[in-house]
C-alpha cells in the first residue's frame, strides 16, 4: 500500500476538516487587465495574486514528499494561486515540478535560492552558482526577480556580524548579485528580511544600510511584515517610506505572548520580548492599515506564511486551516477607506 494520505486526511489534520467545507467556496483567478496589471481596483489584493510561501505546509507535504500532490490540491481549493518555493524541488527536476504544480492550477513565481542553514555552500557567491540559479528560475517560471530568504553565506550574514561593517559588506554582495541578475534578463536580486536586520546601531536600524548602500537598479526587497513587527517596527511606516524598493511581502501574523515560544532578536526595539506566530488575521497586526500604505496593491505580490503552522502543539487546527484562514483574510482586505 502506498504511504499517502487521502485529501480528507490531509485537510483533517487537527481541525482542518472543519475548514474543508469552507475551502471550496473561494475566489477564482482574475484575468490580467490590458495594462498588464491584474484586473480589479487598487485597494484590493487580486485573487490571482494571493500566494503562499510553501514552507508553511512542509509538514503536510511530508519529509518523503508523499503528500505533495494532495497538498497542492488543498492549496488551490483554499484560494492560493501563486507559490514561492523554499529552495526544495521535492526530488524532481525544475521542469517536472513546474508541470506538476501547473496541473493543480498553481504557478511558481518565486523561490528562495541559496543555503538553508549556516555553514552550507552559498551558490550566490560564485559565477557558476548564480548561473545555475538563473537557469532554474527560467525553467520554474521565468521569474521577474531572483533572490534569497537567508543571509547565511553572505558577508554580514554570520554569527557576530550583525553590525554596520557586516551589513555594508552584505550590501556590496547584493549589488554584485543584482547586477549579474539584470545582465541575465531578470529585474534584479531580492532579499527577504527577518527581525535581525532591524537591530539598532548608532540610533538607526541596520536595514537602513541595505537600503542606502544597494543600487535600486539591481536590488529590491521582499519584506516579511511579520518579522518587521517582531522587531518592534511599524509595517505601515516602512511601506510608506520605502515601498518603492519593495516588490513583494510575506504576510505573517504574530501574537505578543509572555509565554510565547519565540523571542525577538537582540538589538531590536522589541528585543527579548516573547511572541508566537498565529494565522493571518488572528494576531496583533492591522493588515488593512499596513497595506493601505501601498498606492496600488496590484503592483505587488503577497505570500502567506506561518513558520509553525504544522506544529500541532502550537497550531492545533493545522496547516491546511492556516492557509484557508489566510486566504480568507487577504480576500477581505480593502484599503479604500484608509488611504
UniProtKB/TrEMBL annotation:
Signal peptide residues on this chain, from the entry's feature table: 1-24
GO molecular function, a single term: isomerase activity
Keywords attached to this entry: Isomerase, Signal
Keyword Isomerase: yes
Isomerase among keywords: yes
Residue ranges annotated for the Xylose isomerase-like TIM barrel domain, each copy included: 72-310
Domain of life from the UniProt record: Bacteria
Protein name: Xylose isomerase
Organism for this UniProt entry: Asanoa iriomotensis
